[in-house]
Amino acid sequence: MSITERTYIMIKPDGVQRGLIGKIITRFEERGYKLIALKLVQSTEPHLEKHYADLKGKPFFPGLIKYMASGPVVAMVWQGLDAVKTGRVMLGATNPLASPVGSIRGDYALAVGRNICHGSDSVENAEKEIALWFPEGVVQWASVAEAWIFE
Ligand code: RTP
To answer: How far is 151 from 148, CA to CA, in rounded Å?
Structure first.
């Protein structure tokens, strides 16, 4: 756990199409996390097969890949204390019906196959996912708060 821990958060095609981008970003901003990288991407099935490689063989895998490639996703990196674990708590459970009200899935989703947002499940996987989705690298943030207020 460190204040520079990073997690990969991705708004899935259903979240984008339902107009939930702003609401999801607001939750991470209001919680205190810092946005390190963000882009709207039309992904491809081969790329998504890499992202979900651990799930290859599951009966829902083909449908998951098709759904994830059905429209653009918002790829993001968020940084802050315990970002991976807290990000998962903020998302809720994989199945929205098991997600507490107040979590993203608990407030905005009903079906496991349309659960609007992804979050890394470990620091190690976050690093892999950030490298997969941002091969160009991410912005190097400095401590620039004063520069937003003073010349
Ligand atoms: P994610 O990777 O998307 O954040 O989800 P997760 O860790 O909570 O769940 P995981 O087991 O990695 O599953 C990845 C995504 O596959 C879909 N899924 N469908 N129909 C089903 O039984 C089923 N189970 C999982 C969900 O969209 C899940 O988020």
So the answer is: 8
